[in-house]
TrEMBL record:
Residues 19-177 form the Helicase ATP-binding domain. Pfam families: DEAD, DSHCT. SMART domains: DEXDc (SM00487), DSHCT (SM01142), HELICc (SM00490). This is DEAD/DEAH box helicase. Gene3D superfamilies: 1.10.3380.30, P-loop containing nucleotide triphosphate hydrolases. One of its GO terms (molecular function) is helicase activity. Keywords: ATP-binding, Helicase, Hydrolase, Nucleotide-binding. SUPFAM superfamilies: P-loop containing nucleoside triphosphate hydrolases (SSF52540). Residues 228-420 form the Helicase C-terminal domain.
């Protein structure tokens, strides 16, 4: 049945098409620009399933989005109907609608959790995260292992190869998958670059101004003045707020918000009072607030704020609520704010078009830029949305701003990686033939087959062209035995000899002279043979035909190189066997049978080998509960670039390092991630220190400290599921309770 309206809303054609596909019982992938209304499709599916008393799982890439969806769906369906599982939070896990991170779902499908038996649909919000270098493998494994009777709804930003993705899903699930694509936005977006000198300009205008100013300059001094975020805000604040201002540095988010607050106030007295009341309601009396909460309140009272992963959960919540209520007019934020959470604005600003990706600075990819820009333009409020990018004209030649193009979006590629946990679970649940099929089902293997078939087909066509062209050519064409190539090179050689001779002995002995002599010797060797003697007519024919022949020959070489660069087709199966050998060596497998250590590690999803070895050692027995918390917080901890901690030794790390070295000696350096520097703050918190006292022990952002404690609780929850020792399970519960308090306790969701 065609859906013209859904709850009295007029549907866009792509939404209507998606709803029809859901009603037809199909799996569906919806790919559309940010802000076009993809979420409505998921809402419809969930309402339909709830009416029919079916269970639905909704997965999201980040906890903030999971938490937001949990709050939204609770309002819509009631508290009893909705549950959440995000690793560190488990509430109402048997509810008919269950919100979870994609990692939790992956863990359920790989262990064949019986709770999945009655789930009719799985919603993958932001399914294009399959492309994420760190976490993409989780989406791939989830899609491969999702039970066949469970229908998929995938929501994605615009992607270049959506049909490729859908073809892959159809090939592994043996079902029809409806691809619904929308390329147009309801609210069109305009893109501008900004400098103080140029104002708002397009890409071509920016370059014309830059070249004209360089041409007209009188001396060598730069003709360009500096441009700051304040210049851009002054330019747009009359008609383009509210705005998101993306800054790829947590520290700079706060600094820039404070700089703007020194010169601007966007709230009327009544709005300011509303903000202050909300802070008191959430945080209590101001005398008890942290300095960061006071700072945030001063900013929010002027309609300005910042948002990043280092904020306390409660601080994020109040910023998000105020933003939704349009009491924040300028929000400085990191890119995580662009993921899924529906906070549309009139304009999006970029402090820079380069970002640090953990290894080096690089330009934003097309899909990153358009994902973030897509937040601009509020449906029903704005005729247009705007994207503004700050540019430094002083670096135009050295680091030119990218020209982003929607028709050049990067295709999704597989990020599949094989963990020891996956190896153990596959070995436990699948036969060897099924395992081989599993790897053949990967998006990587599918992409390999497509690329291989395409390259072989193109090579065959090139070969035909070469054969057709070569019939009219001498076989020496392209070599120095051909007079067409030999004689011009011979003339070049003579010129080079004369130039070298004219240098004289002193200059000949210098670097450039020695380089000329080396080149002469090389050319003499190439031209040592007398070229083939060809009649003039043959030479004329070869001259006419050789250019196209050599171009085709070059294309052939490029295709052969591309084929050679493809990964080994059975690379994952080989790695699987390689890792199984490691697991046998360390006593996790006997042939293909999981031993007790292997069974334990199959239920641990973070540093499974190190955690299992610690469980089976006597290390825990040597530690009290606070030291145990400190140790477990060090597992898989990865410090940020400038993180610092007070030097402290809260437990003897030697036995842990010996275990780590043992694992690394067999499985390689990457098999263990462990950093005891963080142990001091967890130990202090576990002993009952206040949050302010813990902060004094490090320079971590408040939200990162909380993240350490929540991540440790999550690991202990996994350990409790993995071990049979009731005494250890009880002890872990006590340890979790010592961390799960005050600022680190989960807020009411």
């Amino acid at each position: 049945m065609s859906k013209r309206t859904y709850h009295e809303m007029i549907l866009d054609p792509f939404q209507e098409e998606a709803l029809d596909a859901i009603d037809a019982g199909k799996s569906v992938i919806v790919a559309a620009p940010t802000g076009t209304g993809k979420t409505l499709v998921a809402d419809y599916l969930i309402e339909k399933a709830m009416r029919e008393h079916l269970r639905v799982i909704y997965t999201a890439p980040i906890k903030a989005l999971s938490n937001q969806k949990f709050r939204d769906f609770k309002k819509q369906f009631g508290e009893d109907a909705v549950g959440i599982m995000t690793g560190d939070v488990v509430l109402n896990p048997t509810a008919p609608l269950l919100i979870m991170t994609t990692e939790v779902f992956r863990n359920q499908v790989i262990t064949e959790d019986p709770n999945l038996e009655f789930v009719s649909h799985i919603v993958f919000d932001e399914i294009h995260w399959l492309n994420d270098e760190e976490r993409g493998t989780v989406w791939e494994e989830s899609i491969i292992l999702a039970p066949p009777k469970m229908k998929i709804l995938g929501l994605s930003a615009t992607i270049a190869n959506a049909s490729h993705l859908v073809d892959w899903i159809e090939s592994i699930r043996h079902e029809e998958v409806a691809l619904i694509e929308e390329h147009n936005r309801v609210v069109p977006l305009e893109y501008y670059y900004f400098t103080k000198d140029t104002g708002l300009v397009d890409y071509d205008q920016l370059w014309r101004y830059y070249r004209r100013k360089l041409k007209d300059r009188i001396n060598d001094e730069s003709p360009f003045g500096p441009t700051t975020h304040l210049d851009l805000i002054r330019t747009i604040q009359r008609s383009h707020l509210p705005a998101l201002f993306f800054v790829f540095s947590r520290k700079q988010c706060a600094i820039k918000a404070m700089e703007l607050a020194n010169i601007a106030n966007y709230l009327r007295p009544a709005e300011r009072k509303t903000v202050e009341d909300k802070f008191i309601h959430l945080f209590g009396h101001e005398i008890d607030w942290s300095s960061s909460t006071r700072q945030l309140k001063r900013l929010c009272s002027k309609g300005i704020a910042y948002h990043h992963a280092g904020l306390l959960p409660s601080q994020k919540v109040i910023v998000e609520e105020l933003f939704l209520e349009r009491l924040i007019k300028v929000l400085y934020c990191t890119e995580t704010f662009s993921v899924g959470i529906n906070y549309p604005v009139k304009a999006v600003c970029f402090d820079s078009l380069n970002k640090y990706d953990g290894r080096n600075f690089r330009p934003l990819a097309n899909h990153e830029f358009f994902q973030m820009s897509g937040r601009a333009g509020r449906r029903g409020l704005d005729e247009k949305g705007f994207s503004f990018a700050l540019v430094d004209l002083g670096y135009m030649e050295k680091s030119p701003p990218p020209k982003f193009q929607l028709n050049r979006l990067e295709p999704l590629t597989s990020q599949f990686r094989l963990t020891y946990n996956t190896v153990l679970n596959l070995t436990a649940t699948l036969s060897q033939t099924q395992i081989e099929t599993y790897f053949q089902k990967s998006f990587s293997a599918y992409s390999y087959r497509l690329s291989s078939e395409r390259l072989h087909s193109e090579l065959a066509q090139i070969q035909q062209k070469l054969e057709g062209t070569h019939q009219h050519l001498c076989e020496e064409v392209g070599s120095f035995n051909c007079p067409l190539k030999h004689h011009p090179k011979r003339k070049e050689l003579e010129k080079l000899r004369k130039a070298y001779k004219s240098l004289g002995p002193r200059k000949q002995s210098r670097v450039y002279g020695r380089e000329m002599a080396r080149k002469i010797r090389t050319w003499e060797k190439l031209l040592s043979q007398t070229p083939k003697s060809c009649v003039p007519q043959q030479q004329e024919n070869c001259y006419a035909q050789s250019k196209s022949y050599l171009t085709i020959k070059q294309q052939q070489q490029e295709l052969q190189n591309a084929l050679a660069a493809l990964p080994e087709e059975n690379a994952f199966l080989q790695e699987f066997e390689y890792k199984k050998t490691h697991l046998r060596q360390i006593g996790y497998l006997r042939e293909d049978e999981l031993l007790p250590r292997g069974t334990c590690a199959s239920r641990i999803y973070v540093q499974e080998l190190l955690v299992t070895e610690l469980i089976y050692s006597d290390v825990f027995a040597q530690l009290d509960d606070d030291q145990l918390n400190a140790l477990l917080s060090s597992v898989d901890f990865e410090a940020r670039k400038n993180d610092m901690f007070h030097r402290t030794s809260v437990f003897d790390s030697t036995p842990v390092k010996e275990i780590a070295e043992y694992i690394q000696s067999i499985c390689g350096q990457d098999a263990v991630r462990y950093d005891p520097r963080v142990a001091g703050i967890t130990h202090a918190w576990s002993q009952g220190s206040t949050f302010v006292e813990v902060q004094a022990l490090c320079n971590l952002d408040e939200g990162d400290i909380i993240s350490v404690f929540r991540r440790t609780i999550d690991l202990m929850r996994q350990m409790r599921e993995a071990v049979g020792d009731s005494a250890l399970r009880s002890r872990l519960k006590v340890c979790m309770e010592k961390l799960d308090r005050d600022e680190a306790a989960i807020m009411e969701l």
